[in-house]
Design goal:
Number of strands: 0
Largest sheet: none
Number of helices: 9
Helix content: 55-70%
Radius of gyration: 18 Å
Strand content: under 5%
Order of helices and strands: HHHHHHHHH
Shape: elongated
Number of domains: 2
């Protein structure tokens, strides 16, 4: 599912704002944890908001929406996580075409090594059905997962800008 830019539920927006804050704070300080922000999002946002690029298109569309002090019930926590992951995906490095290209490259390398998807799953600790989805370009992978796959295939990741 994609980012719902029209969803203004406070829980969903809170999740998005946490992802936005984490995106900019992570660029400045490296990856961090957001777990404390989900119990007290306003506190976490006050701390990290100063690092957000105020010209960010996502931030601008949410600016001025008051965030709750806490996300108390499980339904709201779920909506906040959905908003968070949708926003993280919007910042993702891969679009559909890139996911398919990367997935095809992984499949080609796996086949060149004479490995089945099950063999690659065993080498990486990733479930076989996830390997299948990655190769089909239907599953976005994080850097750690991609690095694990590359190592299992005897390759490396090169980032070209």
């Amino acid at each position: 599912m994609a980012l719902d830019r029209e969803n203004r539920s406070l829980a969903y927006v809170t999740g998005r704002m946490i992802a936005i804050a984490e995106h900019y704070a992570g660029n400045k300080f490296g990856p961090g944890t957001i777990s404390a922000m989900f119990t007290h999002p306003a506190h976490g946002m006050d701390v990290w908001r100063r690092y957000i690029d105020k010209d960010d298109e996502y931030y601008q569309e949410l600016e001025g929406i008051p965030l709750p002090v806490t996300i108390a019930n499980e339904v709201d926590k779920g909506q906040a996580w959905v908003g968070y992951y949708h926003q993280k995906a919007a910042y993702g490095l891969c679009n559909d075409q890139e996911r398919k290209r990367i997935g095809q490259r992984i499949a080609d390398l796996r086949k060149q090594k004479g490995l089945t998807q099950q063999h690659l799953a065993e080498r990486t600790g990733i479930q076989r059905n996830h390997i299948s989805r990655i190769e089909a370009g239907k599953y976005s992978v994080g850097f750690d997962t991609l690095q694990g796959i590359a190592e299992a295939l005897g390759g490396r990741i090169d980032i070209v800008v």
